[in-house]
Specification:
Largest sheet: 5 strands, parallel
Mean pLDDT: 77
Number of domains: 2
Number of helices: 7
Low-confidence stretches: 22-26, 102-111
Number of strands: 7
Structural class: alpha/beta
CATH topology of the largest domain: Rossmann fold
Strand order of the largest sheet: 2-1-3-6-7
Amino acid sequence: MGIDFGALIVDLENLAASSKEDFDNEFWNSYEKYVTEYNRLLKDVQSLGFYRSLKPVEPVPFSDQSFNSGFSDIEKAKLREVSNTSSALLKKVRLLLYPPAETKLSKEVRSNKIFVVYGKEDEVSSDVIQTLHKLELEPIIIHEATSQKTVIDKIGEYPHVSFAVVVLSPDDLAYPKEETAEQAKYRSSQDVILELGYFLGKLGNQNVVAIYKKEEDFEVPNGFSGVIWIEYKTGWYFQLIRELKECSFDVDANKLGWL
């Protein structure tokens, strides 16, 4: 199951305000709820590979609990810890969803090769390649054939590569022969669709993701069973990282650079 980041932000905003001393007198019921909620949210985010260095909040020891209607100094301090850690995590999550503009690619040699297929070079394909570089993966670009080699020949040069990312873009304008030009829609090029099908057969659908940007009159193919579709929108890389981790890639999302 994916994380609802909109709901996560709302929960963190509530927790960030939880140190205000206007709770009801049922302090421990409220306090334990806030500690449990923060630790759960942190675990959810860490399950995607983010902020592994952040530690859960430790509850106040029973011997330090105050059972009157006020707050002990230790209790107040722990409430501030819940508030401060929630505020810090809230800022980090917002950075993940709205990162600053990209600067430049690292030229460091990477390990863990991954096939990348795209038609036209655009915002989406460039962002996908940059993101893979930042995750310290090495994109093997399958872009076009040469006079000496077919695309399939080029793929055959990398027999140990076991994962592919296919970027779909509106490259061609087409319509069924029984319709007219007015019904024409943009589609990915035939080469890209061929390569998507090839990788699904070669690697298995669990090892192939297809990334697309939702645009008017752009027709995403619907005849592929089991394809992992990722819509290119705010936070798209969360799903890509999750799929990579599920395929046993050792990726650290903190390497994305803006964290």
